[in-house]
Amino acid sequence: MTxxxxxxxxxxxxxxxxxxxxxxxLSLNEAEWTAIQTHFRALKREPTLAEVETLAQTWSEHCxxxxxxxxxxxxxxxxTRLIKNLFQETIVAATEAARKPWCLSVFEDNAGVVAFxxxxxxxxxxxxxxxxxxxxxxxxxxxxxxxxxxxxxxxxLGAKPVLGTDAFCFGRPDYAGALPEGAHHPRRTLRGVVxxxxxxxxxxxxxxxxxxxxxxxxxxxxxxVFVGTVGLLPRWAVKKExxxxxxxxxxGGRTGRDGLxxxxxxxxxxAENAPTSAVQIGHAIAEKRLxxxxxRARDRRLYRSVxxxxxxxxxxxxxxxxxxxxxRVRLEAAPLKVAGLAGWEIWLSESQERMVLAVPPKNxxxxxxxxxxxxxxxxxxxxxxxTGRLVVAxxxxxxxxxxxxxxxxxxxxxxxxxxxxxxxxxxxxxGAAKPPAQxxxxxxxxxxxxxxxxxxxxxxxxxxxxxxxKPLQGVRHDGPGDACVIWPHxxxxxxxxxxxxxxxxGLNPDYGRLDPYWMAMACVDEALRNLTCVGADPARAALLxxxxxxxxxxxxxxxxxxxxxxxxxxxxxGFGAPFISGKDSLYNQSKDExxxxxxxxxxxxxxxxxxxxxxRRAVTMDFKGPxxxxxxxxxxxxxxxxxxxxxxxxxxxxxxxxASPACALDGFKAVHAAMLKGLVLSAHDLSEGGLAVAAxxxxxxxxxxxxxxxxxxxxxxxxxxxxxxxFSETPxxxxxxxxxESEGAFLRHFGRGAKxxxxxxxxxxxxxxxxxxxxxxxxxxxEESLRALKDAWQATLPGMLK
Amino acid sequence: xxxPKVLILRAPGTNCELETAAAFRAVGGAPELVHIAELxxxxxxxxxxxxxxxxxxxxxxxDVGAGRVLANQIRHALTDLRQFVRLGRPVIGxxxxxxxxxxxxxxxxxxxxxxxASFTFNDSGRFEARWVHLRLNTQSSCLFFKGLPEMIELPVxxxxxxxxxxxxxxxxxxxxxxxIALQYVTEDGKLMGYPHNPNGSIFNIAGLxxxxxxxxxxxxxxxxxxxxxxxxxxxxxxxxxQAVGLEMFKNAVAAAR
Lengths: 802, 257
Hints:
Chain A is α+β, with helices and mostly antiparallel strands. Chain A contains 27 helices and 34 strands. Helix content of chain A is 34%, strand content 24%. Chain A is globular, with a radius of gyration of 27 Å. Chain B has a single domain, classed as Rossmann fold (3-Layer(aba) Sandwich). Classes of the chains: A alpha+beta, B alpha/beta.
């Protein structure tokens, strides 16, 4: 057997190795190159090109999350401490502390899995596709959706996708400044990304019904595209295993040259010379065929394990499946898009819509028949072995012969330096005061609050017939819902069981600019209060974390990342909500038009999933009638730091909103219990824009007015300002509408202790669609037509996209 | 009572088959998902079924045109479809299924083999999902509409739903033959433009039936309104209406019994 093209490492200095690797977009550092060199010096041979590529893919930030798992030395002021493994000490520790029996699989598989009733389970995963979407917004978003769907298909023995979510961070579509050569305008990025999500999700027949958009010009070069999928699978299909002797079967699309170096390129800063071949090309119908065939084969139990070909293609899929035993692969058996691919290209290609299965030989014929019936190609690429080696051949050529242990455990841990300096708490300063009514109008029209209808309507958010609480709510089906509720009756096959689930998100990089710790806390709080608003059980929430950060090679950035991870840990512990899966995307920074590095603001997206015990008890956010009582749950503090109000006023400083999980959860649980008894007519969370925005949105969605009395708000006694009460963004608060005859029963669900969430009647709904607010001094603070406020809220996005 | 067998036709890219099957099951039908390849290979026979449903989705990716490839497949793999229709057996094509039935020449007249109408992109230029108000043609003999109120609501979700006809005269023919089954209207029943007419369809046409009334094709999705909690306003106390989608499936099953 001949040996494929070699990659000389034995007699080079680490510096040379790194330069040689960077030229191939391998993104390995000097310590990693030295480890590779040492390994092959012991073997007394040069590695092949494919071996080096395989190691680079497997060890990439994208696949191994080495920043999160390597030691970090954090300096905070004069103190320094060592974090051995950030991921273990924050995210995993919180989940272990929560010890929830309904967590069926966490951090191991392609998605996290939680129980859903007695017989079913839900798999949940969110990913980012930032680098590809920056280069090619449509294709990048499409393949992002395709990839996260395959994650769920490749979770356990395969889950049927029943919900898609998407959250984006973009530069403002009306950005008027300069851009470096080759960068897309944020408007084009937005249009392309939305179209990509739409075309892939709609073709797959998966409702895209949850998500959000955040605009900030610091994302203009590095847009963030988070895509998520929830899948439904039977309990028996959660566990998977590979046995030596099982056949390696590739299924789905063919392999081509698209998507080489995707994993490694996304593990470096995005630069001008980024390889365009790194972006894959999606084909939704090929994936739909794969989905249909796979689930049919699953239900006939024809295979023992499955995973998707994501970053690294076959190399990572087969490398992962065979990690504990070994694998022998013959690449010439792989169906190709074009002839003439080199062995390492087939092995590393990230062509889409492909999965790898472990099939007992006796089942092969039946499996092939199932896939053929759906018009989906399969090919036997080899078999799993018990040698502990990954052996890959292409015809007569030996492409890879690696020790699985070295491949998966050989990555050297490099200690990184991090530093964190708490921001000085400055008194709010700057910006001219404006009348409250004007502030409210500008907040509703702000891109981060305004109506997302233009986006949401392009998604088929009701396919599968289970979207019982839709993303757009209210009389005219256009109000901003807090979360969607999915009743997966068609997939379960039982329309007498009304068990459902809800998915919601939390994201606010503006808080992170002040303190990433409190940003992460607020994001978890926001996701849970959104879930609570639609009737999901806040005590049964499972979380996903998606960190998007700039370069961790900068100690300040890494210090902020540690702060955020510790915020996630404390929030998860405080709320008793375990993380079940997550992902990070680092190196989100690029050179701007003047050649300066432009990092994104550190960003955490929290996605939360919780069961809705009875879909028929779910609640929407629109006012249901006049004369109903309005209760504010939670205490209001003077926390306008990073708030939308400050953004609108051009003001900086102030206290960042601080969540208090125990008290907040107490309030959420009380509201949930009241909802189960049918005592809540509508509920909406207070987030950007605080009480004023929440009340306005509930009013114009339900077409009833409200009269609020700020003196009734439970608050920090040091607050003397009506504006603070109206616009503060203290987490943990909900505005709830209750029928007058239910008020007593509603209030009985709330505790009275010092740690209980306060609940106060702050006003009532009115027939006339006007929002009227009475201030602390008994004066009218604002009195605005809800129709006019709604017009302002609706005009922004279509206007910016013209 | 016997359960009529319902053939739910699948093709690559079909994606509303499970909820369509669930709707038929809920009203006493016996749905079976059948891939078009099975019909083409002769493994399954259309005439063994009492009802045919062509569900929504993006058959063959809607490449070339929505439902176009599926329509050709139907012409070749379901050669007994015209006979099936002539025997009076119920046929429903929803969204992509409607597009395919029109492009296969089954609607608006199943006895003329030629395609006489087609679909093009929504006037808005975008895929859109929204609930619409619809007026049923109470004069039509469409068996799916028995007992339904004249004004109903259903969701639409499509990018290529604008019905176009060969000539203005054809519209007159459709009116005369009472082939126009459903029209997009305002809440109070008036014909109006976007967004009430979500795609710009001629004469606000949302659905067509054959003169005999046993074939119905419609862009809206009745299978997404078979339970009151699927309506966008079920949480509002003022809203209490029947799940009209379910009634359509009930009527089909009743007619097949």
